[in-house]
Write a structure and sequence with these properties.
The chain is of the alpha+beta class. The chain contains 13 helices and 8 strands.
């Protein structure tokens, strides 16, 4: 295989699949921004004291030191090798994987262990995209950052892993948390019926690809009355699903330029990020209080008995917003 062919196989180029996901969303945002500059101005003034990110004051874990002789998978096979922003051969990734049971547990048990670590230890927020290693040191990141760390730990332990990316439609609880927190994002989502990108990791165990959504954390879901995502569960029947007509892509790695593209909203719409992070932080604190009265496992058992997803009525909202834009 040529070098260009290898880069293409790794997903390093923004191809037609990426354009299909980004092509509807970004032009719509630009259109709204140009036609309604006051909306952008108000959005950037929103939540002036809100956090730029949700980096914890102190990491809730220790990053182990690498020692000679630690086991790790060094492979050039697809879904096991290093990709952009996801290096399973970083020494800290190797050390962490060994401390969490790589090559000591079964693939399923190791997958569950690192899923639990990333899901519970890395705070989800609205911040610029980082590498897997930087996410580990920061203790916070987007769903893509958490995926990169989880995938790096999988590959380091010899488990093939890839990204599953799509433009999501979200349940009402998530809409009220993320979209309604800021007027610009609300109008953008209402016009499109979906947000620009979300994702879950997929790992291959015993020949089958297993979905692993590591985007949340234990304190995030109860504040919204949502069940936790467990290792091997698909969020599409719980709280997030690919919006109709937008498609799903499963690249081995992230493309070059993704940090620049994903970083643009933080340059131009800083208030939006602060508003979303403020809302996420408030729900995080609410979740912590809930678990002062009930255990995590008990909450999850109870909510699963009655929970049914209520999807945001994006179609109706879209029609209303588009009509308003034409006024």
């Amino acid at each position: 295989m040529t070098k260009i062919g290898e880069l293409k196989e790794k997903g390093y180029f923004i191809d037609v699949d990426w354009i299909r996901i980004l092509g509807r969303a970004l032009p719509s945002l630009v259109f709204i921004a140009l036609r309604y500059p006051r909306l952008i101005k108000n959005a950037n003034r929103a939540c002036p004291d809100g956090p730029q990110n949700l980096k914890p004051e102190k990491l809730p874990y220790k990053i182990p030191k690498y020692k000679d002789g630690m086991k790790f998978c060094r492979s050039k096979k697809r879904y096991l090798r290093q990709t952009h922003l996801c290096n399973p051969l970083d020494k800290e990734i190797i050390a962490l994987g060994n401390s969490l049971g790589a090559f000591q547990k079964s693939d399923w048990e190791y997958g569950e262990t690192i899923f639990k670590f990333v899901n519970e230890s890395i705070r989800v927020d609205f911040s610029p995209i980082k590498s897997a290693l930087k996410t580990l040191y920061a203790g916070h990141g987007t769903c893509v950052d958490k995926m990169s760390l989880f995938i790096a730990l999988c590959r380091m332990g010899g488990i093939p892993a890839r990204y599953k990316l799509y433009s999501p439609e979200i349940v009402e609880e998530g809409y009220n948390l993320y979209m309604a927190a800021d007027p610009l994002i609300k109008k953008w989502y209402d016009a499109l019926g979906f947000f620009v990108i979300h994702g879950s990791a997929e790992v291959k165990i015993k020949g089958e690809w297993v979905v692993c959504d590591v985007s949340g954390d234990p304190y995030h879901f109860p504040a919204l009355n949502l069940p936790f995502m467990r290792f091997g569960e698909d969020p599409s029947d719980k709280y997030l699903r690919a919006a109709e007509g937008t498609g799903v892509i499963r690249p081995e790695g992230l493309p070059f330029g993704i940090k620049f593209i994903a970083g643009l909203p933080f340059k131009f719409f800083g208030g939006t990020g602060r508003a979303i992070n403020s809302s996420v932080k408030a729900n995080y604190e609410k979740g912590k209080k809930i678990f002062e009265k009930i255990s995590i496992d008990e909450y999850d058992r109870n909510i699963r008995k009655t929970y049914k997803p209520k999807w945001a009525s994006s179609g109706k909202r879209a029609s209303k917003v588009l009509a308003e834009l034409d006024d």
